[in-house]
Amino acid sequence: MSATLVSNDGWFPASWRTREARQMPAYADGDALRAVEARLAAAAPVVAFDDCQQLRDAMAGLAAGRGFLLQGGDCAESFDDPVAQQVAGIVGLFDAMGERLGPVVDGPLVQVARIAGQFAKPRSAPVEQHGGDTLPAYRGDIINGIAFDALARIPDPLRMVRAHMQSVGTAASLAAATASGDPIRTSHEALLLPYEEALTRRDPHGRWWATSGHMLWLGDRTRQLGGAHVEYLRGIENVVGVKVGPTMTADALLALADRLDPANRPGKLVLIGRFGVKAIEEALAPLMRAMRAAGRKVVWTSDPMHGNTAIAGTRKVRRLSDILGEIDRFFAIARAEDVHPGGIHLEMSALDVTECIGGRGPASVEELDKNWLTACDPRLNAQQAVDLAGHVAELLS
Ligand code: PEP
Ligand code: CO
Question: Whole-angstrom Cα distance, residue 260 to residue 142?
Fold first, then answer.
């Protein structure tokens, strides 16, 4: 890479490669991987610079205390998703939730889906066991296959090409479906760095953007200050989300913000708290206080899903009561700390799935099997999501 393409204290799209990268697959065939990277580097961007910039501008408003971010969608997209139906579903769901939220939000309702690139999953355990057998964990369709079968679980770089093609189609459909109304922007976790690097492009002003999605976030398992994921994300202009879990300290969060956004640009960073209904009580206030004392112009939002996951047998269990409980506490703590409660981040489906317990969904663990469709974590079904939006609307008004 020539020196002119290097910016930001030695950052360039591949500078993550000298850092330790957690949660990344080991591809057996290096030549095949490099061929895929070259192909993606020459491929169409999934999203346009201008739209990424527009989301940055919208987020700056939220950082100034006006508006609300509704972010949500699948835990993991799948190569089997029927794209037209998926897009129609998420647009309809955002509309229905927006009907509840829009009228009571002071300022714009900013809409960002987990879509058109949400294909890579961090895993708590490297292996998965069924019956007596142990196989490598499923890491999302962009990496390996979900079938419990040794061949399917081998990471295949060609899956990146397929994920990219599907994402281009999904993002285009989403843009077309919202062309006459409020945009719904795209987002995903920036986990699979060879894919992200290949889609990183320079705009006419010489600024680097991830063109894989409008907003990318840093997962709770890959937020090591000296790690590869932080290194990649510090160089792009896109809105960057940071998952903030119960083990985050104020010092670590301050250091992370300094690394990801030394210039403290308003709304550049969205801090997505995902503590769990119990842990949020002690954990959130000191973090909000530290960011405020440092003058950090961030947006705080709440992901009430990922800290409220229990295991029953082989199923992940999430209860609506815990999810609502974490949202209630998020609002209460933010207000007590004089911080703008800036949004929510949900795993939700437009379908009538039975993945979270409570409300207009399954009443017990036994009912989860009825329509369990997720490729990874349990999502709210459409009715649960709309009811939750109504609940948040009450908190906002
Ligand atoms: C996710 O958002 O799907 C996820 C894995 O979140 P976290 O990194 O917060 O666990
Ligand atoms: Co998830």
Answer: 26
